[in-house]
Design goal:
Layout: E1 31-32, E2 50-54, H1 60-69, E3 74-78, E4 102-105, H2 107-118, E5 125-126, H3 152-155, E6 162-169, E7 172-180, E8 193-197, E9 217-221, H4 228-237, E10 242-246, E11 268-271, H5 274-283, E12 291-300
Parallel strand pairs: 1-5, 2-3, 3-4, 8-9, 9-10, 10-11
Antiparallel strand pairs: 6-7, 6-12, 7-11, 8-12
């Protein structure tokens, strides 16, 4: 369970999404971290619920006591920076009343766990302590788009690569369809990316950029006196991990094209114009903002079946 607030000083967990928004996921849809679950010899292993909290704001002892008082079986604390792991001292505080196990993981692992726990599709995260094996995911296989042809002539008959983009901030989420561009790489469906609304909104030039988009998904508006090539080039130079273009008016979404001479690598997708108002509403919600609080993840549609060659 993820602490809310994430510092874990209050011993409360992140509230689940409302029932009407909860995903219909069976046991096969669990995200499982760690080693495969050992087969029970005589009796199944007991399930324990641990609270995930970020280091800081209060002492380690306070966090452990808050986790215990919140009814959790243990506490996982992740570091606030990349300094690695440290022994968590009690600082002279009395700990005779504490019997909950607590351990620290590094910042990268903690942030990855936090992102997983914030997604409404996840019903449970399982981990086994006592092994240095790398974490593995036993989620259902993700649909990945086929490699894009390198020959421009083959691109003319290449079908649109589309899917659904899920935007989420805490328990609130929004799913909208998207169409991938004909240039750049495809965004990975494995990870969620923080969303930043471009300022200025059309992102036609590096001049006057007011909001950081490096490592984020840059949300921009179509038009503004520049084409897709210019928007993608600016986003790429700013270090954006993804370019999300909101369509203008009520026209149909399209697979954006760009000048091949630019050698663009930034992944880019277009979403419908109606998504703009919905996203603005999501970013106005408590705890959300236009700069990094909303996460976006892409889920690609299954590719069309290959046509059988005539005999």
């Amino acid at each position: 369970m993820l602490a809310d607030p994430v510092d874990g000083c209050d011993g409360r967990r992140l509230a689940p999404p409302p029932p009407d928004e909860a995903a219909d996921v069976d046991d096969g849809g669990r995200v499982v971290l760690g080693r495969p679950k050992p087969k029970p010899v005589e009796a199944p292993l007991p399930n324990r619920t641990f609270l995930l909290a970020q280091r800081g704001k209060c002492t380690f002892v306070d966090k452990a006591r808050a986790a215990r008082d919140g009814g959790f079986d243990g506490l996982v604390i992740f570091n606030t920076d990349a300094s690695g792991l440290i022994p968590m001292p009690a600082g002279g505080a009395a700990t005779d009343d504490l019997d909950v196990p607590a351990f620290m993981v590094d910042n990268g692992v903690g942030k990855a766990l936090e992102r997983v726990l914030r997604w409404k599709e996840t019903t449970r995260v399982e981990a086994w302590v006592g092994s240095s094996d790398a974490c593995v995911s036993l989620s259902p296989p993700l649909v990945r788009p086929p490699p894009r042809p390198t020959d421009p002539e083959d691109l003319e008959d290449w079908p649109d690569v589309a899917g659904n983009a899920t935007f989420q901030c805490g328990p609130r989420s929004l799913a909208v369809p998207f169409v991938s561009a004909t240039f750049g790489a495809y965004a990975s469906p494995d990870r969620a990316v923080p969303l930043a609304v471009a300022a200025p909104p059309h992102l036609c030039s590096l001049t006057g950029v007011e909001r950081r988009v490096a490592g984020m998904a840059a949300l921009v508006l179509r038009g503004g006196g520049c084409g897709f090539s210019e928007k993608a080039l600016v986003a790429q130079k700013l270090g954006a991990a993804l370019l999300v273009v909101v369509n203008s008016g009520d026209g149909a979404m399209l697979a954006m094209a760009a000048d091949p001479a630019l050698a663009l690598s930034v992944p880019a997708v277009m979403v419908d114009h109606a998504a703009q108002e919905q996203l603005e509403k999501l970013m106005r919600a408590p705890g959300c903002s236009p700069s990094g609080d909303v996460l976006v993840r892409l889920a690609y549609d299954d590719p069309p079946p290959e046509e059988e060659a005539p005999e």
